[in-house]
C-alpha cells in the first residue's frame, strides 16, 4: 500500500502510540451499547417531543419512513404531537425488507435488481394490513433479501481486515488517509468482527448492518477525540461505497418478480429515490407513482413533477394516472441518539414533513398537474382498498 505509506506523517499525531490489540471489556461493552434497542426515559421523551409542531398542516402523507427499532406507539405519539390538528392522513411505515403495520396499513421498502440496466433499485410497497397477514411467498422473498445487510457488513469488515489492498488503496487515495489511520481502523474493525462472531446471536435483529461500524466508531469519540474519529469515519465511508459498488446481486430478486408478487396481494407500488435510480423511470414498470422529492433526492423535483404530468397526458384518460409522492425518509433510530451525536442531515428529518408541498413555485406546478397532497391521499387510499 505505497500510497498510504507516503501519507503517514500527515495524520500520525492523531493516533495513539500504543493501541491495545486484544479485546477489552470496554470494547465489548461498547458493542452492546451501540446495538442496544432499550430506551431510557430521556430518549423516550426526546422521541415523543418533536422540536417543532405543525398545527397548520391538516393533511399528512407519510409513506416512506423507517421506524427502525423505535416502538410504533412512540412513533404514533411523535406524529400526533407534530400534527395536532390533522384531519386527513395516510401513514405507512417502510422498513427495509421487513413488513410493518400502522393502523390499517402495512408497508416495506424492498431492495431488488433491475436486469435491464444491471442495477440495484428499491421499491416502496404499501398494503391493507389484512392482505399481508399471511403473504408467505413475499415474506420469504423479503427474508432472503434481509440477509444482505448483515452479509454486506461482514464483506465490509473483511475488506478492511483481510484486507482487500486494492479497495483500501482506492479509499485512502480518495480520503487522504495515512497508514496510521488505516492501521487504527483495521485494529478496531478486527475487534468488532471478532466480537460479532462471538455474540451475534445475542444482538437484536436489525442492528447487524453497515451502520454498526459508524455507530461503534462514534462511541469511541470520548476516548480518542473527534479529529481521529472523523478521519476514521471518512475513510470507512469511502470503503463502504466501494464495497457496495462491488456487492453481489445474488441476494436480490428481480424488480419484475417483486412487483408481480406485490400486485397479487393488492399492493400499491412507488418508486423512491428516482434521482439515484434514474434508469427505472424508463423501464415502464407497473407502479402507482414516483417519489419526486426526498431529502437525499431533491435536485430534480420540478423536472420529475413535469415528467409525471407528461407521462399521464400520454397515457390518456383510460389509464390510472401516475401519482406524485414525496418521501421524508425519516430514520427514527437516528433520533434516539443525543442531538449532539446525530448526523445533522438525517436527524433533522420528520415523519410527514415534506417542504416542497408548500413551496410556492412547486405548488403551482403540482396544482396544474392535479397532484395536491389531499388528492394523492384519497386516490392512493382508494387503490389500496381503503
Report on the architecture of this protein.
This protein has 386 residues and is of the alpha/beta class. It has 2 domains: 2-34 and 149-246, no CATH class; 60-133 and 265-384, TIM Barrel. The protein is 47% helix and 12% strand. The chain has helices at 2-5, 8-11, 25-34, 41-48, 72-82, 136-161, 165-175, 179-199, 211-218, 221-224, 226-246, 255-264, 301-315, 332-336, 344-347, 360-368, 373-384; strands spanning 59-62, 65-66, 88-91, 100-102, 105-114, 119-128, 268-271, 289-293, 323-326, 330-331. α9 (211-218) runs antiparallel to α11. The radius of gyration is 22 Å and the shape is globular. The model is unreliable at 1-12 (pLDDT under 50).
Task: Give keywords.
386 residues, alpha/beta, TIM Barrel, 2 domains, six-stranded mixed beta sheet, globular
The run of helices and strands is HHHHEEHEEEEHHHHHHHEEHEEHHHH
Beta-strand content bin = 5-15%
Helical residue percent?
40-55%
Mean pLDDT: 91
Q: What's the shape?
A: globular
Radius of gyration: 22 Å
> What is the second-level CATH architecture of the largest domain?
Alpha-Beta Barrel
Count the strands? 10
The count of domains is 2
The low-pLDDT segments are 1-12
Q: Main sheet, how many strands, which sense, barrel?
A: 6 strands, mixed
> What's the total helix number?
17
The CATH top-level class label of the largest domain: Alpha Beta
Secondary-structure class: alpha/beta
In whole angstroms, the N-to-C terminal distance is: 59 Å
